[in-house]
Amino acid sequence: MKFSSNHINPLNYIIGLISLMLSLLLFSCEPVKDEKGKKEKPGNGRVMHSINGYNLENPLLINLPLSLSEVSGIAFYDKDTSLFAINDEFGFLHKVRLNQPDSSGMWKFGPPGDYEDVVLVDSTFYVLVSDGSILTIRFASYDSLSVTKSQIPETYKGEYEILYYDSSDKNLYLICKDCESDKKSALTAIKFDPANKVYAEGFMIDVKSIAGMVGKKKMKFKPSAAALHPKTGELFIVSAINKMIVVAERSGTPLKAYEVNEQHYKQPEGISFSKEGDLFISNESADIGTGNVLFYSYNAKP
């Protein structure tokens, strides 16, 4: 498997992207409707249908293989329009070609555990363990992986589900889902320097501000996935428990919050962007059907 940019053929990339779009059209979903079967009107309730260049009303749906029913993290691979993904309980790295969802590669990187997210930076994968530890994974050969583990310091111990990369400072960031040091009104983000394998203080997310954006005085915000938008630099944060997408500044300051319809977001645990800004959100099966990925094309505002 070659990851070097020297091997990218622009024509092949364009052909692959067109093929992806054509195949995804086969999985288009019906517009979100309310309990009476009527199409909901954005802005009249809490459920929103558009967000920063995306139409959330009509996602294109990709069903994942049964081995990814408990998909907990995804990373889009622009070079051949594929998704790398991990399962919550088993230590396998999967590769799914989006124009051939039934075709999947799989490599073992660890024993059964609690794996929450995956990030691809150049040719290196980073897998988040629920306690905040990070696995650094590289391909030694096509069928062989080298793995090293960075143990999170006791100071930052907690429950984590989010790992994303910020190219502006070349750090990985972890957002705590449940940390004893956090107050109900805020969540902690920890940064990890992948070059030196060092954890450090990151920033705080104001949960009270998020609650106010959806008309609540307070809330327990439990995020499950996050990624930086490649065009705007905004941080997209997904919460499976809250059924919500929060858009924040790179520093973590919330800008907008959107409650989304459970028809599509049954258990969103992963998020990733293409380099052009197309959005992918993965759902666990939630005991019904299979895991899936929601695809939204990006329409930048002029």
Q: Which keywords apply here?
A:
about 300 residues; mainly beta; four-stranded antiparallel sheet; about 45% strand; disordered N terminus
Description:
The strands form 6 sheets. A 4-stranded antiparallel beta sheet has the order 3-22-21-20, with no helix packed on it. Strands 4-5-6-7 form a 4-stranded antiparallel beta sheet, with no helix packed on it. The chain has 302 residues and is mainly beta. Mean pLDDT is 83; it is low at 1-45. Strand 10 (134-141) and strand 11 (144-150) form a beta hairpin. The radius of gyration is 18 Å and the shape is globular. The protein has 2 helices and 22 strands. The chain has one domain (5-83, 95-101, 158-296).
Topology, please?
Blueprint: H1 10-24, E1 50-51, E2 54-55, E3 60-63, E4 71-77, E5 82-87, E6 92-97, E7 104-108, E8 115-121, E9 124-129, E10 134-141, E11 144-150, E12 159-166, E13 171-178, E14 186-193, E15 198-206, H2 207-213, E16 225-228, E17 235-239, E18 244-248, E19 254-259, E20 268-273, E21 279-283, E22 292-296
Antiparallel strand pairs: 1-2, 3-22, 4-5, 5-6, 6-7, 8-9, 9-10, 10-11, 12-13, 13-14, 14-15, 16-17, 17-18, 18-19, 20-21, 21-22
